[in-house]
Amino acid sequence: MFIKSEALEVKEDGEVLVLLGAASPGAAALTPLSSSGDEDEEERAASGGARRPRGAGPGARLPGLGPECRRRPSRVRAVPRSTRAAETAQRLQKSRRLKANNRERNRMHNLNAALDALRDVLPTFPEDAKLTKIETLRFAHNYIWALTETLRLADHCAGAGLPGPLRPEAALLSPVGALGSVADSLSPVSTCSCTGSPAPSASTSPYSCAFSPASPTGSDGDCWPPAAPDQRHCAPRCPVPRDCM
DNA sequence: TAGGCCATCTGGTCCT
DNA sequence: AGGACCAGATGGCCTA
């Protein structure tokens, strides 16, 4: 339901009647049909069409008519009051809708900005690979879990005096390193057992594809829980280098 | 061309 | 009443 704003530039007798999008912030973009410019146009129409070129309006005299036909042109005022009230209500309703649309648009923009901020702190490979919204959320979920698990395992291994596969200091310095470390710890040969999981459904399988954006809940059948320990191929767009997993 | 992703609109609901 | 939030619908863009 979009039209190019420039397509709405209508001229009649050299006079610009409609020019949408020129003053709006998104003038370069597509302009919704229900933009405020549309309302302006409606406003003008409702006020009796005052901009109509001379001689073209409904009240223009017809040539060749006798004096009895030279009546005053019918006025817009002839519209019943109830109709005008209805029109006013309709305009008010439309105005409210447009404002609500704007708020909703801003709200979604804020949401997207937050998602972008989240993408910024997530390690992806290649660097500029952009995760989709759902991937971002799932990956963030798994990433947080992985970092938590890193800390937990580090504590666990340090307390048990085990050499352990983890090097927490390195892991914390590099998010990807953290992922790799946890991935190592989750491997079948790990000396540290892993019981935690970002998803209840995966609690029985420590070999989860925790570092992919795929759903940890497995609701979409991506890879959670995986069928085999090595599930690095399971994510459609795995943001983490395979070497790190 | 089908499917995925996205932005936007819209009406409903809840809250202040 | 107005705003925030939500979910469904719709259409555009992109890719396999």
Can you give a write-up of this model?
This protein has helices at residues 36-46, 81-121, 133-160, 168-173, 175-185, and strands at residues 2-3, 10-12, 15-18, 31-32. The protein has 245 residues and is mainly alpha-helical. It has a domain at 82-157: MYOD Basic-Helix-Loop-Helix Domain, subunit B (Irregular). It has a two-stranded antiparallel sheet. It is rod-shaped. The structure holds a DNA duplex (16 and 16 nucleotides). It comes from Rhinolophus ferrumequinum (Greater horseshoe bat).
Please describe the structure with a list of short key phrases separated by commas or semicolons.
245 residues, mainly alpha, MYOD Basic-Helix-Loop-Helix Domain, subunit B, two-stranded antiparallel sheet, 5 helices, 4 strands, DNA-binding, activator, protein dimerization activity, transcription, developmental protein, E-box binding
